[in-house]
Amino acid sequence: MNSVPQPATGSLGRRGFLGIGAAAAATGLLTACSGGTKIGADQGGTDAGPSFEGGEYKGPKVTLEYWNGFTGGDGPHMKQMLAAFNKEYEGRITVRNTTRQWQDLYPAMPTAITAGKGPDVAVIHNDWVATFAARNTLVPLDDVVGALKLSESDFIPAVWQAGIYDGKRYSVPLDVHCLADYWNESHLARIGLKEAPADGAAFDRALTDLRKQKVAEPFWMPNKWPGHLMFMALLWQFGGELYSEDGARALWGSDAGVEALQWMVAQIDKGHSPAQVAQDAQYNAFKNNKVSFTWDGIWQINDLKTNARNLRWGMGPIPNIGGTPAVWSASHNFVLTSQGAKDKNKVTAAKFFIDYMSKQSTEWAKAGMIPARNSVRADAAVASLPQIALAENVDVFRFLPALPGVGDVQAKALELAVQQAVLKKSSPAKALKDGVATADKLLADNKKKYTR
Fold first, then answer.
1. Which of 108, 119, 333, 414 stands the most exposed, by the fewest C-beta atoms within 10 Å?
2. 3 found inside a domain
3. Sign of the CA dihedral 436, 438, 441, 446?
């Protein structure tokens, strides 16, 4: 994901991910979804075509359009996997790759699919599956899952459940990616630490001790990316939840939410962080040996290996500040679109492609991702990768709920509330209260927009 200027890289993008919801709203994604992407009877309805039974592809030669947002350090790994597929299926299936920034991909997909110029198969994040499924932009993949003999028991449950909407499976999960705690080993050595603190009290002591050792501001607090991801992780740690089970109400304005946001603001008040940290400044400061800790996604692993040669760094789970181990997480998922569903040969070919790619989790792990399948994480070739240590307890992974339109709510309400508080434009409690009011209105609108 290089959705942002260098040097920040990764699979998800920093500004890229931040802009997903806003871009969706600005370009009329919701209107496009509800208008043009539904498949009527003349377009085959939601029929997913011939049942997938595995084996070899025996249909005529087809070309599949494949869209994804892997524009950063994970991109070369995806291209390598694609090259291997095209070589194996040469003369039968050709997959033509289109890579776009995530914040451009999501609003473009519905309109492009309506015009027949979009993807036949794509990778999207777990929190977009329900949105696109609700508007019939996707077709079910239950037969693929059945043929692959995939079941919830081999996956992190939340990842598995995210692909189900209205009783049907619309996606096959490829990975999990989450926030991690990165630390400067040289800085920690100054205060006698070999590993990062694991809880809130120890983390605060370390920051205080580091300042005594001439690290002026050891933990910079972002007001934008990935500040809202940090807030969600802390919300869950303090025992809170994002939304009600029926998706009608935002719950992040609770006491747990206030505690989480107060903790973030306190890092500035205590002098651990400067105020008004510019976009990407905290990550760049870490790479340049100015910051002792930074919380960022595991997609930064390859960037640090390549572009931070003068930095001795370590990585592990974010500390348990609130008392309940939890971390923000997301997942890349393969989906079959309604455009591909118009051609039964493409449907079959796309399912073979998804089948093939789902088996390449070991190669994909080299891109810095955590394989979604438990069995793959246990593979010796994968188990030694640094990010796999973050999955020792998969119960810590928390995901956005499978609510249609949730990305829009996040961008217009939660993210802005976090930003207002961290920039000291509003108290944490007031910022969250105002944000929840906005969120509840958006959730009510979504209930009307996303009815089937």
1. 108
2. no
3. negative
